Amino acid sequence: MRSKRLALGVLGAVSTLVLAGFAAVDAGRSTSGATPRSKLTIMAPAAPGGGWDLAAREFQQALRGASIVNNVQVVNVPGAGGTIGLGQFTEIGPDPSQLMMTGTVMEGAITANRSPVGLLDTTPIARLAEDYEVIIVPAASPYRTLEDFLRVWRENPRAHAVGGGGLGGTDHLLAGLTARAAGIDPGQLNYVSFAGGGEVLTALLSNTVEIGISGYNEFRDQIEAGRLRALAVSATAPVPGIDTPTFRQQGIDVALPNWRGLVAPPGITAEQRRELISVVEDMADSPEWADALGRNKWASSLLTGDEFTAFIREDQARVDAIIEELGL
């Protein structure tokens, strides 16, 4: 990949999108020799405004606020459910000053997009927390409840566009699971994928799609402002602070938590991995992170090192089975 110096030499001829696509790799080259305690760059493999972006920036602020790492940057590399970012991240080289936010969405996209690399091609560091998905509609929508939508969805599934993140990601899985639980063939889904929750919101408010699916926090401000109505949340039980019934409370047997975690590039040393885990553990014990969990209605689910690696292996298999079963 061209270095940043060469990219700058032809800046006028290179589009902003291409530069953004190479940003994380260039950042990895420019931080050579940095240690996790002095400088970190966190890749959010999605567009600004999405769930990974939010998680990366909350992680950034907690590290800064707790004085664990003062120089923390976040770069966005959107596309294909995070697999474009994943592909670039695995090419950075063994740089312990680099981390990438990941989670359930990427597992589905790896399979759906036939990605040549997977999460086990990185160095797993830690699972941080779980959040939940919501199905939402504009405030002016005639659908007041989940059943209102399911009633018309059953009549003609293809007539109702459902917007969410990348193919095979959590949003897509939730749409498929909801369809199946409601007696609809998941193969009849009219699913429109977007790079992140911000784009889903734009599509929903412009009536490009009729139903939106994404993480609760990606829609929270619009829900609280009354511009959107949440029909169901994908938690296993009611979530304190979220005034939306679960699918199960409404007779639809669906629950799908969405975990967020961090991986490092392949090839770092065991000592560097331990140091990164230590940084995350210090952050997880901070009042700043406790505040982030509370504000975002996240459930702490810290898991590190080899246990996190084992979790990824098992969870990827679970997601793959869902995708195959639903025919997505």
In short:
This protein is α/β, with parallel strands linked by helices and 328 residues long. It is built from twelve helices and ten strands. The chain has helices at residues 4-9, 16-30, 51-65, 83-89, 104-112, 146-155, 170-181, 197-205, 216-224, 270-284, 287-296, 305-326, and strands spanning 39-44, 71-76, 98-103, 123-138, 162-164, 191-193, 211-215, 228-233, 257-264, 299-304.
Model description:
It is a single chain. The protein has 328 residues and is of the alpha/beta class. It has two domains: 4-131 and 259-326, D-Maltodextrin-Binding Protein, domain 2, CATH 3.40.190; 132-250, Periplasmic binding protein-like II (D-Maltodextrin-Binding Protein, domain 2), CATH 3.40.190. It has helices at residues 4-9, 16-30, 51-65, 83-89, 104-112, 146-155, 170-181, 197-205, 216-224, 270-284, 287-296, 305-326, and strands at 39-44, 71-76, 98-103, 123-138, 162-164, 191-193, 211-215, 228-233, 257-264, 299-304. Strands 1, 2, 3, 4, 5, 6, 7, 8, 9 and 10 form a ten-stranded mixed beta sheet that branches. Strand 1, helix 3 and strand 2 (71-76) form a beta-alpha-beta unit. Helix 2 packs parallel to helix 4 (83-89), helix 3 (51-65) runs antiparallel to helix 11 and helix 5 (104-112) packs across helix 12 (305-326). The chain is globular, with a radius of gyration of 20 Å. The chain starts with a helix and ends with a helix. Mean pLDDT is 89; it is low at 1-31.
